[in-house]
Amino acid sequence: MKQSIFGRIAQLAKANINALLDQAEDPQKMLDQMVRDYKANITEAEGAVAQTIGNLRMLEDDYNEDVRNAQDWGSKALAASRKADEFRAAGNPADAQKFDNLAKVALQRQISSENEAKSAQPNIAAQTEIVDKLKTGLQQMQGKLNELNSKRNELIARSKTASAQLQVNDALKSIDIMDPTSEVSRFEEKIRREEAKVRGQNELAASSLDAQFNSLEDLGEQTEIEARLAALKAGHSPAPSAISASDTVDEADFDKL
Fold it and tell me: For the stretch 199-222, what's the b/e string if a residue is b when 16 or more beta carbons lie within 10 angstroms of its beta carbon?
C-alpha cells in the first residue's frame, strides 16, 4: 500500500503537463480537471503519508518504551543483586538466593526488552526512509500543482487574448467586406453627379441668356434703322452714330439711286 502510493506520487510528480496540454481540445476545462485531480491525489496521499508517519511514531514509541524497560529492568537487577549480597554478608543465604533469583528474572526481562528494541531498529529505519520519500513526493506534487495553476492562469489569459484578437480580426474582415467609407464614396459620387448636372443646367441657362441679349441687340439696331428711315422721309437729318462692320453695304446699291 505504502509503496503503491509512493509510486503513484512519483508518477504524478513526473507528469508532462505540456504534453497533456498539447492534446487538450479545451485546455481550460482540462486544466481545471487536472487541478481538481491533483488536489484530490494530494489529499489522498497526505492521508496515506500521515498514516505512515503515525505508524512510524508508534514504532518509535514502542522502541523507546523497550529501551526504558531495559534500563528499568537493569536497575532492578542491580538492586536485587546488591540486596542478595547484603543478605549473604549477613549470613542469610536463603534470602540472598531469593534476591539473586529476582536479579536473574530482571536481567532476563532486560535482555528481552533490549532484543525487542534492536529488532525494531531496522523497521524504524526503513519506515523513516519511506516517510522521507513520501514527504518529498508530496512536495513534488505540490510543486506540480503550483506549476499547473500557473500554467492554467497563463493559458486562460492567452486564450482570452487570442479570443479578443479573433474578434478584432473578424471585425476588421467585416469592415473590409462592408467598408462604410465605400458607402460614403458612393454617396459622394452621387452628389458629384448632381453638382455636375447643376453646372450643366447653369451653362445651358447662361447660353440661353446670351442668346436673348444678342437678339435684343439685333432688335435695337433694326429699331434705330427704322427710326432714321422715318426721319429721312420726314425731311430730317438722322443723328450720326458709329457704324459697325456689319453696317457696310455694297457701293453699287448707291449707284442705283
Answer: eeeeeeeeeeeeeeeeeeeeeeee
